[in-house]
Design a protein that fits this description.
Two copies of one chain form a homodimer. Chain A is 50% helix and 13% strand. Chain A has 111 residues and is α+β, with helices and mostly antiparallel strands. The first copy, chain A, has a single domain, classed as Winged helix-like DNA-binding domain superfamily/Winged helix DNA-binding domain (Arc Repressor Mutant, subunit A, Orthogonal Bundle). In chain A, α3 crosses α4. The termini of chain A are far apart. At the A-B interface, α1, α2 and α5 of A face α1, α2 and α5 of B. Chain A binds a DNA duplex (30 and 30 nucleotides) through α4.
Chain lengths: 111, 111
DNA sequence: AGCACCTATCGACATGGGTCGATGTTTTTC
DNA sequence: GAAAAACATCGACCCATGTCGATAGGTGCT
């Protein structure tokens, strides 16, 4: 179940993945993970952690994480019976560059 | 009021506004506007232009533009009976910085 | 083996939001 | 004043999707 980060999902897919309150909160947690409640000293954030952080049922968490992984924003490594999630900085870098084209658009005024 | 760009809408509101195929296309058009079909030589893009570009009915266009304006991504100036829309570069700059925090997050490289 | 735990999938439900027709408001033009 | 054009608002429809319970698949522990 390797994460196919080589192919570039559409920008809209990534934006739609981010533009959800639950997934946005999940990404923020991935950015600054609190000490794992299910596995102290773990090298990542597992799905069961998100259940606590997000306050949602397990299938719902699984669904949201799948969306993030499919969008290429997050990778999920399976270690034992846990899945550890990590951010994909490149994906956010690409989005950053996309938005930059809009931030600099108004700079050039039609002659 | 027309342009309440002083208050900062939530980041999620802006992301949700962008993460829509129609509005994304509208933003791209605002970035590189083609010559206006309803008013040649106009100093902006009016709503009726979007009807042609997006291929949608007028109420639908009005709805989408309102979402973009409310999100602070676009301003709408009313000139006569037309409303000319422009990008708000600052808003995209803020989003850019938001995403930068994820792009620079601890990137552990697999051995 | 048997059990407990984490995760993925399925099915069903409810909500949100995109879409359009009809209508109203404002402004320009004749 | 009347007509036309651009835009906003309203109401309704319909699809996408977030949510959960039930269930199945996998893994580690005793």
């Amino acid at each position: 179940m390797a994460a196919m980060t080589t192919e570039a999902p559409d920008t809209l897919v990534r934006l739609k993945a981010i533009a959800d309150p639950v997934r946005w909160k999940a990404l923020q947690f991935l950015r600054e993970p609190a000490p794992s409640t299910c596995r102290p000293g773990a090298a990542g954030v597992c799905g069961c952690d998100f259940e606590v952080v997000l306050g949602l049922a397990q299938p719902t968490v699984s669904h949201h994480m799948k969306v993030l992984v499919d969008a290429g924003l997050v990778t999920g490594e399976k270690h034992g019976r846990w899945v550890f999630y990590h951010l994909v900085p490149e994906a956010f870098g690409e989005l950053q560059r996309e938005l930059a084209t809009f931030a600099s658009a108004a700079a050039e005024v039609p002659a």
